[in-house]
Specification:
11 helices, alpha/beta, 305 residues, two-stranded antiparallel ribbon, globular, 10 strands
Length: 305
């Protein structure tokens, strides 16, 4: 049983789309399971439905207004570098309304349901398994939601919840429990894929393999908070990868990891068409180069399997 796993990573999900496009269209890989966290959960239903060109258009054309109904960010530029500062007006409105988050992301739910149809949902549910990761904050645990267990509206809700990077996006409540982005508990659900019976896993990790780089720390408490959250999620990601490797070794599962070749962005909550189009192509090129290298190694007698 083969599984495709895509990690969280905001706008960097475009890179994962490029990797998946090469693997599925040019390597002919077919998957029985698709697992995603955060931005990965947005990609995997479309990939499971075979709608690669569609998700390319949807993903690379997404704007801040398609994500945030109340945007807590203001984008700034310093030369070629983009960064964010706090949107004081929107944040003040949230405080006045006694909200617990700086922004709201109901626009993302509308955008999701506009582009992920009931017909696609029914097709996937009958033939594949798609699993998204969410964090149950009330019970302090990670939960995995399979398309096979829910209706169209319910599953769209779980996909949306998996992407809600609080406190910058919406805090959701389902059945009395509060939920948020799955990445707070599991950034790369490799182990979950193995526990569900996968014998081969292709995992796209939206971070460079060597995470040792100097970050540009924010100049205000708001941007510093973004840096802090990024640091914490990096630690979760390292743990997920280590656990996934151990589970794969213990279960004798073939695990193929696809990293980004370098740090793509300082802030993955900035959605820039030019950057995301470039990242998609970089992901495609990286997967192609990795596959060619693997075939070359198989042909060389001095390379041990």
């Amino acid at each position: 049983m083969k599984a495709l796993v895509i990690s969280g990573g905001g706008s960097k999900g475009a890179y994962a789309g490029g990797v998946a496009q090469y693997l599925m269209q040019h390597e002919g890989r077919e998957y029985d399971m698709y697992l995603g966290t955060s931005t990965g959960s947005l990609l995997v239903p479309h990939l499971a439905a075979g709608k690669i060109e569609k998700i390319y258009d949807v993903f690379t054309n997404v704007k801040q207004s398609n994500i945030f109904s109340i945007d807590p960010f203001v984008k700034r530029k310093n030369g070629d570098r983009e960064y964010v500062t706090i949107n004081y007006f929107n944040t003040l409105i949230q405080f006045i309304k006694s909200k617990r988050t700086f922004g709201e992301s109901t626009a993302l739910k509308r955008y999701l349901k506009k582009h992920f149809t009931r017909e696609e949902f029914d097709l996937i549910k009958a033939t594949k398994d798609v699993i998204v990761t969410v964090s149950n904050l009330s019970k302090n645990r990670v939960e995995y939601k399979s398309i096979k267990d829910f209706t169209y509206d319910e599953f769209c809700e779980w996909i949306w919840i998996s992407c809600n990077y609080i406190p910058f996006m919406s805090l959701a409540k389902v059945n009395g429990f509060e939920y948020a982005d799955g990445a707070f508990g599991c950034v790369v659900p490799i182990r979950e894929a193995i526990l569900r019976g996968a014998t081969e896993v292709d995992a796209v990790i939206l971070e460079s393999e060597n995470m040792e780089y100097n970050k540009v720390l924010g100049k205000n408490p708001f941007s510093l908070m973004l840096n802090l959250f990024g640091h914490l999620l990096d630690q979760v990601e390292r743990s997920d990868i280590a656990i996934g490797k151990l589970a794969a070794k213990y279960k004798n599962v073939q695990l193929n990891l696809y990293y980004t070749p370098s740090k793509l962005t300082e802030n993955s909550l900035i959605f820039n068409k030019k950057h995301m189009t470039t990242w998609w192509q970089q992901g495609f090129d990286y997967a192609e180069a990795k596959s060619k290298q693997a075939r070359s190694n198989e042909l060389r007698p001095d390379i041990l399997p």
